[in-house]
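Example 3.2
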Amino acid sequence: MNKYRTHNCNELRKDNDGDKVVLSGWINKKRDHGNLLFIDLRDNYGITQCIIDKENSNFEKLEKIQLETVIKIQGKVIKRSNDSINKEIKTGEIEVIIQNFEVLGECKELPLPVFSDQEYAEEIRLKYRFLDLRRKKIHENIILRSKVISFIRNEMIKHGFLEFQTPILTSSSPEGARDFLVPSRLNPGKFYALPQAPQQFKQLVMVSGFDKYFQIAPCFRDEDARADRSPGEFYQLDLEMSFVEQDDVFKVVETLFVNTFKEFSNKKLLFNKFPKISYKESMLKYGSDKPDLRNPLIINDITDIFLRKDVSFEIFKKLVKQGSNVRCIITKNTKDKPRSFFDNIDKWAKEQGASGLAYFTFEKDKDNLISAKGPVGKFFPEEALKEIMSKTDAKIGDSIFLACGKQIDLEKITSLARDKIAKDLQLIDNNTFAFCWIVDYPMFEKDEITKSIKFSHNPFSMPQGEIDKIDFKNPLEILAYQYDLVCNGIELSSGAIRNHIPSLMYKLFNIAGYSKLDVDQKFSGMINALSYGAPPHGGIAPGIDRIVMLLADEKNIREVTMFPMNQNAQDLMMNAPSNVSENQLKELNLLIKKK
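Structure, written as tokens:
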């Protein structure tokens, strides 16, 4: 018999009444009732209530003991009376009478409470993460993470995928985010890079003749932290398939996500077959390529309205003549909303750096003519209002919010406004998941600062269309087989059908300013391998952290990460990054240049 326990702290039931047991765990809570001391003993599995009376010689020792001390107790199981059953825990029908106990691990004064999930300063939580992880909610999140990863792994194997591990020490890539560099002791002055993703390696796996690959891959990017992105490192489900088209990848991923989200959440899936939305359509209708489809509000372009002579809204008309566009959001049946609702939205828009949001409500006057009620309503005659209603599917009693500006600014403010208005009107069903694919990304985009042409997404993607008919002279018109998977406004993954043709790769990289020599040097392993018979292939890499964040209904990725860094990419618990000795630097032929 194990000397520390006969059962775990979630195992005992009323059928164990009268059994002599040994339990070990942490003291989660104590309640002193004078002659009786109640102790909630906690381990990884759950909680068991233990009691000791004043007649026991161990009473005073247990009374003084610090919470979170690890103890072993020997005792006897008894059934609770009906009026004392605790339905909140699985062991709630029994309790254990303590006969003897032993301290296994002493505990100092706690810097944060473990028995509650109250909010606590992030600095303290991260410094004492091992204590934070004992707390019920975050402990369950990490267990959920483990179960999700195991489930995903089994699903991939069922689909015929093989799991391989790709290198961690590799070469630096000129594309993407900033690399983490590792100096080489055996090759002085040269550096490895930690992989931002196994992109090139997984393509090489396909060239090597393996048909379906996956791994739960660690990725490293020297990026700033965000609520949905950890600084430094993260994990993704990396997968690649040979002899596939875009829809073949979609079929595998949709099945995986439907099964995973049904297994680990009671929330409703809005779509079992994920809708496909082009990048262009998404930016117009939602102002973003990460749309939250739980939100019913749609953005419409009504620039043409301001070319009408009978519209006298001169501020917008002047901006339109200078090249600006006008977009709007219709809110259904909001005629009875107080003016403060509309003014608050306008004020909020100004706080976001925009010039505000004009608004009015469609109504009928006493002569049954369509008119507009609101600060700018007077500038729109009936015929113009009818045209707006036709373009936007607006009805009498609906309201409209208007924004004018350059496309990039317009997309930003209308996307934010769409979310803000929907939340204020309580239009979003938080009990649903809404997945979609964003497809048909442009292969290239113009850099706003340098005005040069650069890759918009993944440089290794296959352009759409017949290769001999692609118009390389108009690169901004070239679309790629690139796609993003989005859920509830969160991007879970990017993927693509890969460009496996070296001659085509040289042409595309040349448009982005890379010579043939640049490609041969920067991507030598990849371009060389593709020259030896490469199959058509494609894949995707959904983020594990974001998947678990959605399933756990958390807003911050740190709540589902075991040992996260803070916003400054520091590990407060292990004091990383840290200084290294002069001898270590000397071994690596490095010299620190002080600022």
